[in-house]
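Look at one such:
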Amino acid sequence: KSLGVSSLENTFENFKPVAGTQKALAAFKALAEGKARWKMLLCYGGVGCGKSHLLEATAIALYKREVRCRVSTMARIMQALKHAIECDKHGNEGKPWEPYDNRLTRLCNMSHLMIDDVGMGGSGSEWEFGQLEEIVVARYRERLFTILTTNRDLTELPERVVSRFRDPDVGRVVLNSGDDFRRLKGGVSREKTREEQK
């Protein structure tokens, strides 16, 4: 639970690579093992292609190297920031809370940050993408370990965010074009789905 992973079985060893996943797998492993000279990774691709598994595998691999990094979703992070703003304005029914400025500063400065499902789960408003921009720009400036995953096309993400990950000295942008693993379990490939839609 402290790592924010759905299962401790979601390791690199248990990831079954299929066509289109190899580059993403290599990029996540390079970061997790400390073998990459770059520190930022933006991985995008369709639903079910293994992005979340690879993100959780990275958290587990880092933990084995005694580096603690929790996987969170963009929706959860933005919800926490909004709650902090409300508490700053109106209090929190007598309970302590972390002020918005402190929470945002922590996200900008923590040594490792991994955010799953960027722009998904109800997140992705102009304000929320503005917060993400502020976080990514600050982390880029300090060259901090940062991984984002998304189902969205790159054109739907803020240009200032994507640009930072495209700097070859600092980051990588990787497409995971693998099929939906959940469909593959039932023997349904992307090609078969297209046939069904005809």
Observations:
- The longest strand covers residues 40-45.
- Confidence is low (pLDDT under 50) at residues 188-198.
